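[audit] Reproducing an earlier prediction to check determinism. Same input, same settings, fresh worker. If the tokens differ from the archived copy the diff job will pick it up downstream; this log only records the rerun itself.
[audit] input (639 residues):
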Amino acid sequence: MRLPYFFAVALIFLVSASLCLLAASYAVTKVEESSEFAVRRALDLKGHDWAEVQSDGLRVVLTGTATDEATRFNALTAAGTEVDTSRVIDEMEVAPTSQLSAPRFSAEILRNDSGISIIGLIPASEDREALMDRLNDLDSGGPVSDLMETADYPKPKGWDDAISYAVETLNRLQRAKISASPGLVKITAIADSQQEKEQLEQSLTRAAPPSLRIGLSISAPRPVITPFTLRYLIDEEGGNFDACSAQDEEARETIVAAAQDASLTEPYSCTIGLGVPSPRWPEAAALSIRALAEIGQGSVTISDADITLAAAAGTEAGVFDRVIGELENALPEVFALHAILPEPETETQTGPPEFSVTRSPEGLVQMRGRLGDETLRDMVDSYARAAFGSEQVHTAARIAPDLPADWPVRVLTGLEALSQLHNGALTVTPDDLVLSGVTHDPKTRAYIAGLLSEKLGDAQEYTLSITFQEPPEPEDKLPDPEVCEERIAEVQASSKIAFEPGSATVAADSRDTVNQIADILRECGPIRLEIQGHTDSQGREEMNQQLSQSRAQSILNELRGRRVPTASYTAVGYGETQPIADNDTEEGREENRRIEFRLIRPEPVANSETGLEAMEAETETSEDAPTDADASNADAGDQ
């Protein structure tokens, strides 16, 4: 039976369609597989093994998570090298970026005669207006330059303490550079004297919070000495200095060596300062001292470039003339020599004019002797009352004619010199000015020598006998922190602080030791102190760390309970990390289980040029004073 024509055609069409569909499906599969394989290979060669490839007809779909946008774009580019970019479907994701770390916050404050400048990066949450108000209160007469930038990040730990301490410190220093960063403040400043430097270092160290590290670099520049003075005397007992100045260490060694050759009887060190009249000052000083030693006895006074050499009475004229002649020829050209040889006495003196003043340790002043006229007497009386106090002065001087022309100058200069002493006596005669007494300042004798040399003029003789005595300690003066640390160490050397086994409870027999330490700390006032806890190595390290911290905190609480101000103290546990003995023996382990009291000392500050220093250079014509090397020798904080 034959199929109808219609059915035959339909059957053939269906068979052909099926074959075409199968062929097309096979071709598409091959295209997808080849495209997928080519793209995957290209991605792997570029190191993008994180990307997944899936073919969908002519489309190539990329999925996966790229580490950043640049990596995602690089993967797209690699896929586009194998198939047309229009066929690449990007369904890749980019991993979210991690939180950026906070920047390093810091502020640098510079204070000088031109005002205050502050520069740096501070947290946006910092009360900027309040900070500027505090700085303006410090320097109401000068401008405050705000050069700070801000960043919107939380304040780091220790930032508030550092800024507060920096501003508080700036209130004590007229010229300083302070760098404040979280937990650390570095201070560079200049003091007028070594004594002021030491006082500043102690007060700044005491004022710092215990959690704050500080670095101090305070220099005491060389003083300006005017007039540049040296005075050396030789008598029956030997030689000694009333005053000595030198421009540097080498000059000082030269002068002191010459004095030692000329029978120097007491230790003395020349003051190093600025203002030397000639680079050959030490040569002139050494020559003058040796000349005086060759003459025998007398004094030599150098005031700037004027040299006065006075021989003792009875000096042989021939020796005097020879030595003076040799000295005149040997001295550098800038120096002028005045030589004095007292004439031998030919008759008994009948009482030369004299004016004398005595000042008692209680401050009472009595003046006797001769003054030229009423005007001079009123002038001397007024000056004395201004210098010593109007209720302390008693005047019993009389008016006498025919006094030397320079008598007023000699009397007033002597009174000015006496006012520098705690107590003493002054005698003025036409040929000499004799001043003796006691001072509490070791520099007073040199200052008075310079004053008399300047005011009395060239070729004028004077005699000084000034004794230095240490001033009495103020009743309310706090002990030196180092002394406090030593006293506590002595108490612990004889009686150790012990605890109950495995706990932070102070043993009953150690409470007396804690009481002694509390008494010492109460006397010492606000020192920066770290109470350190230490253990042996038995047990787990983490447990030892926690136990040492608990014991240090327990001692801090014990001190608070005994009414010791502990705001400047901190408790730190070091566990087994700092042994002082062998942990393999019971004796060593016992030594390692301890509490220590350590001062938190300033750290040395390295000098480094900063942007603020460059700004300061623009506002000042002079160079920065050199940093004293001793200021860099401060002990590092005990950790």
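[audit] rerun output stored. Observation attached for the diff report: The longest helix spans residues 5-45.
[audit] end
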